[in-house]
Amino acid sequence: MSYFRTQNSATTFSSSRRQRQATANRQWQRNQNTVAFAPKVSLGPVAHTIIIALLVAILGLIYLSQVTKTSSYGYELDRQNTEMATLTAERQGLEIENARLQALSRVADSSIAKSMVEPTSTDYATR
Amino acid sequence: MQTNQDYYRTVGLRSTILWWVVVFFVFIFILRLFYVQVVRNSYYVEEAKASQVTKLTIFPERGNIYAVDNLGEEIVPFVLNETVYTVFADPYEVKNALEVRNVVNEIAAGEIVETGFDLLDDKKLRYAVLARQVSRPQAEMIAKKELAGVGLQKGSRRVYPEGILASQLLGFVDNEGIGKYGLEGYMDKELGGVPGRLETVTDVRRIPLTIGDDNVSQPALDGSDVVLSIDRSVQFKAERLLREGLERSKATKGSILVMNPSNGRILAMANYPTYDPAKYTEVDDYAVFQNKTVAYPYENGSVMKTLTMGAGLDSGAVTVNSTFADGTGCYKMEEWPKAICNVEDDPKKAAATMLDVLRYSLNTGVIYVLRQMGGGTINDQARNTLYSYFHDKYRYGQLTGVEQDGELAGTIIKPTDQEGSSIRYANMTFGQGMDNTMIQTASAFSMIINGGTYYKPTLVRGTYQQGQVIEKMPEVVASSVIRADISEQIRDLIWQGRKTGFFGKNDPEGFKVGGKTGTSQVIDPKTGRYSDDNSIGTYLGFGGSNSPEYVIMVRVDDAKVPGYAGTSAAGPIFNDMSNWLLRYLNVLPSAG
């Protein structure tokens, strides 16, 4: 397949078969393209630069949105850490309260404990 | 007139100049960029990091301390951590100082830092502490008030649910987070853990952001949770009995130690006077922080006769059937003007037995044992033999390694020292002339009655991990220190000595409770001589059925009751503790 640009820069179609047949006196083969495509409008270097700049800008935006999204995980992590610390502090508080209520001095000084008496003698089931 | 050609030439020249000027400046920019981005790259990278990256220390949680109860069936907390807050203000941001003062005073009245409120009007300041050690509920109430310029800073403090129980063996943690005295001081590293590190990009509120390639997140390693061998009930009872005993004998100070002779685990360790570790800053006399059972070497007195007798029997110097002439009840040495005499109870037998030595606490009897070590006189051989038992086998003069900060090794004079005279060694046989701690004597005593194995005394049963106690095996320092049959003989002698003595009637039938009193004179610091006004009473003994289950050592200072302090002050505390322990430990009486 081959393309070439015509002189008037307009897109034209021409059969190269006939032309080539005439000049080179060749035999055409199967699946050989005999039509050349030449676009009417072409992109110059400025257009290419702008397109590339736009693509870079889009990629940059995508990158920034990803970074922002990632940094938002930091806040989520911090929130969860704070929540965990609060729950741990609550658990510690309950453990301490529980331990204080079961402290031996508290139990020994209770009215129930004070009403108890020492055994006068001890019998053993087995010797 | 300028022609078109000249005009175009001039314009062309200007364009060329402009072109080169532009090229020049672009070149300068490129050079500068090269310098900044390539040559000074590392400098600017560090500068950027310094402004964006925050380095934070992650503080580990200090390990909790637990004890056992109900014969090891239950684990109970002795020291826990509590989250507390510091209330601070930024005076520059505070809008209503009066409201701040009223609210903080109302909610956290007990924790106020008065000077902090005086700084609220100074707008040049940015930080003023208004209250410390504020509890979580109090902090939540303050936070709800949303006071402008007031903030809360989280911290941690040690709490003691059992109050003053075991305070001297536990120690405390100071404001810097460093363990002081007792177990906290000794195991500061293990309990303290290892701080972590966080280096990360943060926002203006210092909240870490998950961006950046060089973030470092090294988590903190929390301290180990330690389980003590201390039994809460035994400790509680020991403290109460000690306090009551001291009140009875009008004594000022005292200590008690209970340990298991079969593994070296300490069941109770208490001193009086004591202190509240939660209020350690209110203590005036720092001596009260010390655990005197490990940090107070003293002349143990006649309780040492049990150990001298053990040395005599094991070395073959005497046998249980040996007798000696005690007609005068005194022993006079050539190099000393005064004779060493026995107490009034001495029956002054012509042929006193080894049982009599312990039964009547005969100083002359243990001197006889020392003489026999030298073949009949107190010579180098006798002194060397006694020293080798006391220092090498009983480990006097050495630290036991019990997990307590500030343990002292005491003093034992070598026979080769100038002061290691015969008179000193004669005194050492009955516990004078050498300084030992209670933990040293209780550990050596455990060894001579348990068959001859010296266990390292320990307060730590293991660590607590995910609700399970990871037990630490008892540590044998030396085995077969004395022969097993000798151990049985000395145990029987001590038992019979008590049974036939003053305290024998206190012991329930079917149990083997043995013990020995000791009353040592104290050197008056003013005169440098032994004083008759003060003494230290000690009682050292064991109890059990077929085998000893516990060893108790009691020390009472400055008792003001008639009689020898070992008998009148320390002995009754031992009796009460021993009788209670027999029931608590479910010791069954033997058939014999």
Description of the molecule:
The complex is a heterodimer of chains A (127) and B (592). By secondary structure, chain A is mostly helical. Chain A has four helices and no strands. Chain A folds into two domains: 1-42, no CATH class; 43-109. The termini of chain A are far apart. Chain B has 592 residues and is an alpha+beta fold. Chain B has three domains: 4-39; 61-192, Penicillin-binding protein 2a (Domain 2) (Alpha-Beta Complex), CATH 3.90.1310.10; 230-584, Beta-lactamase, CATH 3.40.710. In chain B, the strands form seven sheets. In chain B, strands 2, 3, 4, 5, 10, 18 and 19 form a seven-stranded mixed β-sheet that branches. A five-stranded antiparallel β-sheet of chain B has the order 12-11-23-22-21, with helices on both faces. In chain B, strands 1-8-9 form a three-stranded antiparallel β-sheet. In chain B, helix 9 packs antiparallel against helix 18, helix 11 crosses helix 16 and helix 13 packs across helix 14 (380-393). Classes of the chains: A mainly alpha (127), B alpha+beta (592). At the A-B interface, helix 2 and helix 3 of A face strand 3 and helix 9 of B.
Poorly predicted segments of chain B: none
Compute the number of helices of chain B: 18
Q: Total number of helical segments of chain A?
A: 4
Q: How many strands of chain A?
A: 0
Count of individual domains of chain A: 2
Helix content of chain A: 55-70%
Question: What is the secondary structure topology, with strand pairs?
Answer:
The complex is a heterodimer of chains A (127) and B (592).
Chain A: H1 16-24, H2 45-101, H3 104-108, H4 111-114
Chain B: H1 4-39, H2 41-52, E1 53-58, E2 65-69, E3 74-89, H3 97-107, H4 114-118, E4 128-134, H5 136-144, E5 150-159, H6 167-170, E6 172-173, E7 179-180, H7 182-186, H8 188-192, E8 196-201, E9 216-218, E10 226-231, H9 232-248, E11 253-259, E12 266-272, H10 292-295, H11 304-315, E13 323-324, E14 330-331, E15 340-341, E16 352-353, H12 354-359, H13 363-373, H14 380-393, H15 422-428, H16 438-449, E17 454-455, E18 460-465, E19 468-471, E20 476-478, H17 484-499, E21 512-523, E22 530-544, E23 548-557, H18 565-584
Parallel strand pairs in B: 2-10
Antiparallel strand pairs in B: 1-8, 2-3, 3-4, 3-5, 6-7, 8-9, 10-18, 11-12, 11-23, 13-16, 14-15, 17-20, 18-19, 21-22, 22-23
Helix pairs in contact in B: 9-18, 11-13, 11-14, 11-16, 11-17, 13-14
